[in-house]
Every structure is written in structure tokens, then in C-alpha cells.
Amino acid sequence: xxxxxxxxxxxxxxxxxxxxxxxxxxxxxxxxxxxxxxxxxxxxxxxxxxxxxxxxxxxxxxxxxxxxxxxxxxxxxxxxxxxxxxxxxxxxxxxxxxxxxxxxxxxxxxxxxxxxxxxxxxxxxxxxxxxxxxxxxxxxxxxxxxxxxxxxxxxxxxxxxxxxxxxxxxxxxxxxxxxxxxxxxxxxxxxxxxxxxxxxxxxxxxxxxxxxxxxxxxxxxxxxxxxxxxxxxxxxxxxxxxxxxxxxxxxxxxxxxxxxxxxxxxxxxxxxxxxxxxxxxxxxxxxxxxxxxxxxxxxxxxxxxxxxxxxxxxxxxxxxxxxxxxxxxxxxxxxxxxxxxxxxxxxxxxxxxxxxxxxxxxxxxxxxxxxxxxxxxxxxxxxxxxxxxxxxxxxxxxxxxxxxxx
Length: 406
Ligand SMILES: Cc1cc2nc3c(=O)[nH]c(=O)nc-3n(C[C@H](O)[C@H](O)[C@H](O)COP(=O)(O)OP(=O)(O)OC[C@H]3O[C@@H](n4cnc5c(N)ncnc54)[C@H](O)[C@@H]3O)c2cc1C
Hints:
Strand order of the largest sheet: 3-2-1-7-19
Shape: globular
Bound molecules: flavin-adenine dinucleotide
């Protein structure tokens, strides 16, 4: 019988797990221990609405009144150093320990920094504090250099433009997000940046920065010098897996878990960006840095703690908002043999399906949330489809998942 559950990391996954535990009637002690000073909040607005406006309305995932009413203890500004499962204790970095019959490691990730690219005007974006600091520089006419045209770098470029700043976007790849979306869809992202006044420089990275009291100079790998007001490094993340490693839990490109969030150590679970979960649809472990994956795996893990089965088996899904366009991606495809486009790429109103042997494995869409929901069903059913039917706007995508469909 569980009486004490500790959720390590006070972010998306911990908040969802706490809610799930109480929703299913767990009436023992729940303690959330988080390194940041803030109660759990959502990160997606940090590069979008919150970066633009600074309005915290709707940002926080658990409010103080909710925690008080549901008897969830928040221990903030505190790091966990490890878990001693045999003793049933979670160890605090400041000394001491906390009783835990079960624990969830939900420590997420931190923004990757670049060696030597440092200074007051150099930013990364992972926390609310980062967003507050960066917002100060996003003014009309400000010159911002963004390094990395991944989703976060691209969203920062978009928000900076919305605030009237001039943006230079450097990216190591030939086309943005080519490793995820392929060359054709990467080119769509490149065009979106350029159409919105961003100077995109592919195959160009940063060599060094030189900061003064009035600005920051960026020397690029193409031997160009750019005078700027601020630099944003958006080159991915490092996983926070130190708690797992220190506790003898298997880590292999993330904390290894099954579809219910169980780690290699009984009574210890993991969810969120730091977790690499087994995905039965793809027959391999997949790690994502997405709101939806974090929430679903946290829900599954909280259920599993209570002896309930609720596996996270939906295809991965995420969105990104850039320049007023809603981009969505679902599934998982490292390579594909056909890309089928439904709708109009020129009008940024399309869904591109990535097929392997006629089976939809992933989809990427602009302003086509409905098609992406259909794509999720197609990925989940694993049935080969007729590309012409997929392309045909009159086809009901859900019908393609049914027996006898075209
Ligand atoms: C700027 C930004 C924009 C995003 N936009 C989107 C989007 O548009 N769509 C989408 O799908 N996803 C988006 N994401 C991704 C999404 O927010 C993450 O996938 C999600 O927050 C992951 O949740 P998590 O619980 O794993 O970690 P987090 O929410 O990062 O929480 C982890 C917490 O654990 C704390 N911690 C770490 N180590 C310790 C320790 N040892 N002890 C105690 N606490 C610790 C950290 O400080 C942090 O507060 C975005 C992320 C960012 C940063």
C-alpha cells in the first residue's frame, strides 16, 4: 500500500502526475520537489505568447489554492541528488532525504550552451526567467541573432519579428529541421522565415562573440561579422538524467522506461523530456521533447503507481506557432520512401504524409489540425493506404483506417 509519492522536478510531467494521482483517489502524501523557484508552469508559451507579452495568465499548471486543497506539497528551489529505492528515500542535494514509496523522475532537460559563446547578451530559452530576461531585448529595431533554426529558435525568431526586431537566423543545416522533416518540408520552413523578413543563413554557425557595453558582435563560420543587441542560442538540449544515473537506473539516450513509465528499478518511474519510452507502434524506444508526450507518459506513470494500466501508446504529436501559422507534426519517421501532400504548400494550407511501404508513419502540416488528427489515426492503425486517396481532399482520412477503404 503506497502512502508517500515524490515527484522529482516541478514541471509539466510532475503537475500532470499530481493531478492524475488525486483524480484517481490517491489520498497519501504527494510531494513535488523542484529546482526552480516557481511552481510548475507550461513552457510552450515561453517562446510564444509569454515571450511577447510577459502576461503570466494561464502559464501556471498548479496554483497554490489547488495544492492547498489537494494537499500537494511543493518544495521549490531544492535539487534532488538521487534515490535510495531500498531505503525508500529520495535524497536532497542540500542534505537530508524524504520518504518515498514510489518516485517519478520528471527532471526534463536544460538548454544546450555553446563553448565560448557566453555573456550578458547571450541567451538560451528554457525557463520563465530566461523568457523574462530575453524579452527586455525584443524591441522595435533591435538586432537579434538566433543560432539554430529548430523549433525553439524559429519561434524566438517569429516572436522577435512580431516585436519589431531585426532577426538573423543562423543554422548549421542546409534547410531548417531537415533531419526531422526532410529537405522539401525544411524548405517550407525556410520560406516561412524569409517571407517574414528574417535573414536566414543556412550552413552557417557562430565562431565567436565579442560583447561590449552597447552591443554584441557575432563572427560567423562564414567569416561574416554581425552587430547585434542580443544572441539567442537555440541548439537543442542536454537531458537532466543525473538523478537516474546516481540511482543506478538504466539510461540510454534518456531514462529507459516502458509505455507505462516504469524504469529499470521497481517503484521508480520517469516521464517527460528525460524519458525514453518504449513505443509499441514503432517497436523501439522514442524520446521526444513535447508537451503531449510528457503529459501522456506522466498520466500513464501515475496510473501505474496506483496499479492501474493506462499505457502511453498514442503516436507522438507536437505543435509550433510561427508567424501566425500553426505547424503540427505527428508520428516518428527517420526515413521514408514517399511524401504525399494534401492541400496547398504555396498557401501554407497542407498536410504532408511520410509513408514507408504505403503506411503513414508521420505527418507534418500547416494550419491543418484536422488532417493531423486523421494522420494520427492512420499511423496508429498501420494500414497501407492509397497515396491518391490520401492526396484527394474529398477523402475522409478516418475512412482510410477502415476495412475495404480505398
Ligand atoms: C521555450 C519552449 C517552448 C516549447 N514549445 C513547445 C510547443 O510548442 N509544443 C510542444 O509540444 N512542446 C513544446 N515545448 C516542450 C515542452 O514544454 C516540454 O516537452 C515539457 O515541458 C517537458 O516536461 P518535463 O516534465 O519533462 O520537464 P520540464 O517541464 O522541463 O520540468 C522539469 C523540471 O525539473 C527540474 N529539475 C531538473 N533537475 C532537477 C533535480 N535534480 N531536482 C529537482 N528538480 C530538477 C527543472 O529545473 C524543471 O523545472 C517547449 C519547450 C520550451 C523550453
